[in-house]
Amino acid sequence: MGFRPDTGEGVIVLSNASYRGVDRIGFHLLDDGHKLDKLPELVTIDPGILSDYVGIYSLNPDMKLTIKNDNDQLFVMVSGQPFFPVYPTGRDEFAFKVADARISFVRNQQGKVDRLVLHQDGPDLECMKTN
């Protein structure tokens, strides 16, 4: 919900799902200077590499990211939250649609994924693969 006292205009945006950009849609309707979200450009990757990413990644004892592959769709669960799908934006790169966040998987010298980097709201967070 938004209101501009200077013009008397108001807007309410309804959504039947949690979406990171609902507020931005309302602000944009009131003032086109407020930019809408740009969703990342998705790419097609070989589903055979999705198993490389599956595992548990630890930032600290209280924060873990669990990655699973379900029917060639990668899902991420952060401690205390449900699983959310992520979508490929490049080899070893994925983006959420429910949040302005990305994940980069990092491979070691042997080509094995041994960590990921979570890019969201500030500093990048590196999480080591624990299994």
SSE layout and pairing:
Layout: E1 2-4, E2 9-11, H1 22-30, E3 55-60, E4 63-70, E5 73-78, E6 83-90, E7 93-96, E8 102-107, E9 113-119, E10 125-129
Antiparallel strand pairs: 1-2, 3-4, 3-10, 4-5, 5-6, 6-7, 7-8, 8-9, 9-10
Task: Walk me through this protein's architecture.
The protein has one helix at 22-30; strands spanning 2-4, 9-11, 55-60, 63-70, 73-78, 83-90, 93-96, 102-107, 113-119, 125-129. With 131 residues, it is mainly β. The protein folds into 2 domains: 1-38, no CATH class; 47-129, Beta Barrel (Lipocalin). The strands form 2 sheets. An 8-stranded antiparallel barrel has the order 3-4-5-6-7-8-9-10. The protein has a two-stranded antiparallel sheet with strand order 1-2. A hairpin with a 2-residue loop joins strand 3 and strand 4 (63-70). The mean pLDDT is 88.
Summarize the structure.
With 131 residues, the chain is mainly β. It is built from one helix and ten strands, in the order ββαββββββββ.
Keywords:
131 residues, mainly beta, Lipocalin, 2 domains
- Count of alpha/pi helices: 1
SSE arrangement, N to C: EEHEEEEEEEE
Main sheet: strand order:
3-4-5-6-7-8-9-10
Into which percent range does the helicity of residues fall?
A: under 10%
Percent of residues in β-strands: 35-45%
Low-pLDDT runs of 5+ residues are none
Structural class: mainly beta
State the total count of DSSP E strands.
10
Look at the structure and give the CATH class of the largest domain: Mainly Beta
Average the pLDDT over all residues and give the rounded result.
88
Q: How many discrete structural domains?
A: 2
